[in-house]
TrEMBL record:
One of the record's GO molecular function terms: tRNA binding
Summary of subunit composition and partner proteins: Homodimer.
Entry keyword set: 4Fe-4S, ATP-binding, Cytoplasm, Iron, Iron-sulfur, Magnesium, Metal-binding, Nucleotide-binding, RNA-binding, Transferase, tRNA processing, tRNA-binding
A Pfam family annotated for this UniProt entry: ATP_bind_3
Cofactor detail note: Binds 1 [4Fe-4S] cluster per subunit. The cluster is chelated by three Cys residues, the fourth Fe has a free coordination site that may bind a sulfur atom transferred from the persulfide of IscS.
Organism: Alteromonas mediterranea (strain DSM 17117 / CIP 110805 / LMG 28347 / Deep ecotype)
Reactions this protein catalyses: cytidine(32) in tRNA + S-sulfanyl-L-cysteinyl-[cysteine desulfurase] + AH2 + ATP = 2-thiocytidine(32) in tRNA + L-cysteinyl-[cysteine desulfurase] + A + AMP + diphosphate + H(+)
GO cellular component, one term: cytoplasm
Protein name (database record): tRNA-cytidine(32) 2-sulfurtransferase
Cofactor: [4Fe-4S] cluster; Mg(2+)
Top-rank EC class of the record's enzyme: transferase
InterPro entries linked: Rossmann-like_a/b/a_fold (IPR014729), TilS/TtcA_N (IPR011063), tRNA_Cyd_32_2_STrfase (IPR012089), tRNA_thiolation_TtcA_Ctu1 (IPR035107)
């Protein structure tokens, strides 16, 4: 009896383990596919690039490094990877964690030690948010390091949800329709910054980093709170996601489907120069049509086609 029970237990355990493995493989494939697609779509990495992967010790940058190392092995092009961590001398920063991890996985790396923590504490009054100065200092140091290392690309670990949050932050608080680009020229003009996790969801990254058990370094060592407005936007998006499944995906699709002629920015579209034309205009006016509110392009196409049919029927011959 007891033998029967334990063999049943063992098969339940085996089934659970196989399911877990299956789910992990699916997750890993999805993340790898999303990173590969983003790299291809935006031309992030080219032959003979040296990619400096910025590693903070958080889940996002560990995941980015892990996937880039995999893609490096199978990519049809050659590129090098160097991981860089900036030790900002925050109290309690576990200095040994990243070098040990990087040695273990056998990747080239550099730890840059700069006491930005003291500068920030010195310059920013107690109780005020320190992130903006801290990020500016960090950015400057990372650009300098990229130059020293001869890196041609600087990879940052921002993901899809960071991009959407930034989009809403800029819209709500900055009056700008602007997100985090997947690829940009650094503000000093000297470097190309890439975000290979642009198509990856934070949920997938959390699950992956837990499954792989990256040695995560807590991100609150500096004692600063995460930007309150960002937290509010995050909560808003999470709430929408629960109540309206698919809305986040739809919003991210929207960021990739911009119609400047249907916004209100005179700098982006020459409204004053609009003239009538002989034929139909690409991206022309469908202002009198019912909005379809769908992200399915086939459905949108079908709506357009049926609209054309209606026009054909009623048009006098
Ligand atoms: S949370 Fe701390 S380390 Fe991170 S950007 Fe803000 S001040 Fe800098």
């Amino acid at each position: 009896m007891s033998l029967g029970t334990s063999s049943a237990d063992a098969s339940v355990l085996n089934a659970a383990q196989s399911k877990q493995k299956y789910n992990f493989n699916k997750l890993q494939k999805r993340l790898r596919r999303n990173v590969g697609k983003a790299i291809g779509d935006f031309g992030m990495i080219e032959n003979n690039d040296k990619v400096m992967v910025c590693l903070s010790g958080g889940k996002d940058s560990y995941t980015m490094l892990d996937i880039l190392l995999f893609l490096k092995k199978i990519a049809p092009i050659h590129f090098d990877i160097v991981a860089v961590n900036l030790d900002q001398k925050q109290p309690g920063f576990p200095e040994h964690v990243l070098p040990e991890y990087l040695e273990r996985i056998g990747v080239d790396y550099k730890i840059v030690e700069e006491d930005t923590y003291s500068i920030v504490k010195d310059k920013i009054p107690e109780g005020k948010t320190t992130c903006s100065l801290c990020s500016r200092l960090r950015r400057g140091i990372l650009y300098r390091t990229a130059k020293e290392l001869g890196a041609t690309k600087i990879a940052l670990g921002h993901h899809r949800d960071d991009m959407l949050e930034t989009f809403f932050l800029n819209m709500f608080h900055g009056g700008k329709l602007k997100s985090m680009p997947p690829k940009l020229v650094s503000d000093n003009g000297e470097h190309i910054v890439i975000r290979p996790l642009a198509y990856c969801t934070e949920k997938d990254i959390v699950k992956y980093s837990q499954a792989v058990e990256f040695p995560i370094i807590p991100c609150n060592l500096c004692g600063s709170q995460e930007n309150l407005q960002r937290q509010n936007i995050k909560a808003m998006l999470q709430d929408w996601n629960k109540r309206f499944p698919g809305r986040i995906e739809s919003m991210f699709s929207a960021l990739q489907n911009v119609a400047p002629s249907h916004l209100v920015d005179n700098n982006l579209y020459d409204f004053k120069g609009i003239t009538t034309q002989d034929g139909p205009v690409e991206d022309g006016d469908i202002g009198f049509d019912q909005p379809s509110f769908t992200t399915n392009s086939n459905a949108a196409l079908a709506t357009e086609e049926s609209a054309i049919e209606v026009v054909n029927i009623v048009e006098p011959k």
